[in-house]
Amino acid sequence: MTSPSTPGRALVVGATGIIGQALSTQLVAQGWNTFGLSRSGRAQAGITSVAADLGDPEGLATALADVRPDLVAITAWTRQETEEQNIAVNGAAVRHVLAALEPAGSVQHVALVTGLKHYLGPFEAYGSGAVPDTPFREEEPRLDYPNFYYAQEDELFAAAERNGFTWSVHRSHTVFGFATGNAMNMVLTISAYAALCRQLGRTFVFPGSELQWNGLTDVTDADLLGEQIIWAGTHEAGADQAFNIANGDVFRWRSLWPRIADHFGVPWEGFDKEPRPLEQSMQGMADAWRSIAQQHDLAEPDLDRIASWWHTDSDLGRTVESLTDMNKSRRAGFLGFRDSRESFFEHVRRYREARIIP
């Protein structure tokens, strides 16, 4: 277990993702010697970039031979067509990373980021069967479905027992955050949708389900998640525990959606009879976004690198209630929180400053 007063060496796996970028920035700011692992090896200020493929154990071993981290955060996953493939690919990714680090014997703590599919089931059986009551609590038993989160946890637990490091698992909800070059981001996707509506004179229609429109929900700020990971890796109370991580408040999309529309200056509509997914309504918008990017001198003209319609549709289209209990984390001493509404608009502001959206 590393000390919060004497930062050491940290490795962020998935450093170009929405969570990885937020965490890496925090680690650098706190004085950690930070290494960022990604397939592209894309550099971020203050971070030593490491390029490797999580599916290539030999390449990982070579790339990570001299990193010798104290703290490791695994924030990456790759979606596959079936859950069987998800288990094979994403379970192996955790196994390969930890095996590559094993010879150096430097690792003191490994944090694994998963999510609420731990409670709701995988994509193939999402929200079906005996889903636990909300708010979801960490002590709930695993569901009786194959799930790549469980496979990742099992790889983590086995490596921890073998090598003597502590671990933590961080179960996030929908993530609000600031990240460049990462499209699986609800704030940026919704912002791009609003900008396209304004450009084309279209109505800003809520794309999701009636339950998500009218019901209560919560979300996770990426910066808050980063704070919890660092806390768990530097405090005894965070060792060998799974924690939910959400902002600590709840809201309804029917209240937030009009505020977003007003912010972007577009007319809006709420849920009406059935979902109206973005993946259908936003087809063929690449040229329109390219025009917006040229008009406003934006940094990224490729809409595929800005918006992930399917990902936001899956979050807003849920037909089961998703609320997270944060009491375990609070009792352990992590007291961070965010106002979800302020979180959304703060990240919009940052995207504007970075010339990602108009």
UniProtKB/TrEMBL annotation:
It comes from the Bacteria. Residues 89-303 form the PRISE-like Rossmann-fold domain. PANTHER family: 3-OXO-DELTA(4,5)-STEROID 5-BETA-REDUCTASE. This is NAD-dependent epimerase/dehydratase family protein. It comes from Aeromicrobium yanjiei.
